[in-house]
Amino acid sequence: MASSGVSVLEPRVRGPVPTWEPAARRPAALPARAAGEYALILAQLAGLLFVFQTFNVESPAFFHLSCWCFGGFALWYFLPAAWKQPAFIALSLVGGTSVLAHVDPWYVGPQSYRAAAVFVLMLVGLGGIIFLCLNSGLPFGARLGFILLLAGALAYARRREWFLPEAYWKVLGAIFMFRLILYVYEVRVARRRERLSDFLGYFYLLPGFCFTLFPVIDYATFKKCRRSGDPLPTARRGVAWIVRGTVQVFVYRLLYHQVMVGPVGVHSPLTLAQFLLAPYLMYTHISGQFHIIAGMLHLFGYALPETNRRYLLAESFTDFWRRINIYWKDFMVKVFFFPAYFRLRRRGEKQALVVSTAAVFTATILLHAYQAFWLNNTFTISKRDLLFWGTLGLLVMAGVLRDARRGSGGTARTARSRPLRALSAIGVYLTVSVLWSIWSSPSLGEWVEVVTYWR
Amino acid sequence: MAGAVSQERWTALLAIAALTMAGAARRAGVESPLLRSTLVDLANDDLSEREAGVELNNYYEGLLRKPPGGHRGRRASAGGPCLLPPRNGIDYAEDAHKIGLKQPVSDIRGFELLPSSSALFHGVELRTNRWGLRGDEWSPHKPPGVFRIAACGASNEMGLGVAYEHSMLHYFERRLNAELSPITRLRYEVLNFCVFGYRLPENVYVVERLMPAFHPDLILVSTSFRDSGAPLIEFLARRTYRGQDLYLDELRTLAGKVLDGPGAETIGRLSLRWLRRQDAVYAALFGELASFSRESGIPVVVMAIRHNVRKRYESLEQLAVRAERHGLPTVRLFDALEGQSPYEMYQDGRDHHTTPTGHRRFADELFDDLLAHPGIRPLLAEGASNPSESGTGPVQVPTAAQPVDHADGDGHPLGRGR
Predict the structure, then answer these.
(1) Global pTM?
(2) What is the pLDDT of residues A365-403, one digit of tens each?
(3) B8 at the A interface (CB within 8 A)?
């Protein structure tokens, strides 16, 4: 029974699930075929660079990142296996410095390169302190206390906007705010000393110097997914994901410019529909970015799992929760759901599921405010946040309890007819859209006014 | 598995081919308006037309789009050492009121600049003359042989963030004097009545109440995205909500209708009601300008200015058409920034006011468009006179703060001199 409760929050996707056999087990590709594959990947990457530049995809810093990433891959491919991870770390730090120098395209010059280099050295120094502390022989409580003190001091400095420009605070926050939690969790659970190369590779990922909204990559998954064999199959998938992400960013731009309307723009049923349905679709921007990030890491042998999967087609709210941000869901399950669930299940399955799910959504609310603090220096939890996450939490909780009662959620889905599944998907989409439009409104009262515009 | 891999590879290849072709089409320029518009939107990383001036609240959009430091955020160097030194002294959090640059007034403008003041604002010294405007110490009396152009608008036309010598109106004045003066034997003066934050309603007030004292031969009224749609509507809704006067009788009447009935307690609902009456709002504003032009005999030209590098918003064209419907000559400054890099045209990532290069481009387009306009060209090129040309009689320009009946040449016709 316990497994059924846990399984409802696990990824469950239909269709052929891609499997990641270590490439070393596969038969080695013929040199000529490998050369052709390599050339084809480079040609695709060159085409993508052209597209990024022509359409101003994301930012000038992103174009710079792509140049480092794609150019780095072209050389990194030829390195011996033992050099690949150190080379990627070095590329990330050097390329990251260059990307950071372009983070404000109005002020690119020698001064920005110098500042970026100093900042990257500071980041590495900070990482060094964290690594030494967490991998020291001190009791875990003392190590955790030191990390919390350090984080508190950094948060205070960030609040006061000391020492660093705003753009650098965002990068620092993006690198450490969630991944440090997962790293500490792993140190606590695994009870072994972690390798410095894994630490550096995990925190100082090249795309992390450009994207401040970064998928919450799990440390254990990150270590497991690094391929040591032929990197071309992983790179090929990476290219496909970058393309998919780029298309999603383009879809987002069209929706943003042509469909999205604000509260003041609602004056007819059509504009009301746009107001209600478009805000949720803006998530294609995040989804696109996550695909690009994961795709770029694939180029360097990190066969990470999917970040988002067909979330617009979710057939239930638990399904939606699993698909919209898979890494976030995994993060929540690992750090909040499982500990609460296993502690409480002796008192009863239902109670454990309810409390654990509530813990997950409470943490989600707090961590979204915490994320906004590190990225925008604002920490607010509004009524709209509570309404959005609270309603979603209740809907997911209901789904979790229903699936637990059935014993196995998979059988229920396959038994349902296609029209019913389509209706379910439409229902989930509309509900989430409405919730998202409330979340995106200036206030709850204004949202009510907008949807009753004819009054 | 092999099939899935193959499908993924081919999908990626086809998608890249399609995207590359779209990129090539964008670079080459396409004829189809629909395709061109789509390609422009694909490349547009700026705010959407609907969001320009009205901040939407999507959580992720907020995290991604908020400019570094935020519009009202403190500078990184505030209160401690900083990795990057402050650049050209710009402090975006500075408040024009606190630094002694503006004072509140009870009319529709809400505030005005203090006369004869000086402060560091948006990185440059912003100095006002004795009339509380940016520019030289003009005399209300127009000397003989002078052709006066009075221009009103908002921050960009005012030249926010650039030295006055680099502002578009100053460039425009220099070009008039360099190229037309030798032909017309006139000296051209461009009087900058622009004040940051002013929209069309405030500028109608400026045109009617402040400009006539200076006997302009031509009046330029700038409109931009702030006058189109949501920003203007929200402005009117906020004033209505606070019970503030709207200056024009037509707007007052509309405000009465907007406030009529239940459920008018919030700015959001008032915005919706104003939105449904936006045709009447524009008719009132442009109608008032046209009426003023007819009665005073001073031509009023509307300048629709596109400040967005990436895209020409349709609402700007609609503004221009609305102005033309009321018989106002209109110039469309839509091409000055076309195809330019935002990093050369905008002052920086937080401040999208135009650089000196952008101001020069605006000035050039304004000069060319005015001279190409069949209604304006004779006036500019031949220096046609108007009833206010002598400018020697008593000047009557009451202000809400301190009405002044008249003033002589050394007095302050705006009644605000120190």
Answers:
(1) 0.83
(2) 999 999 999 999 999 898 999 999 999 999 999 999 998
(3) yes
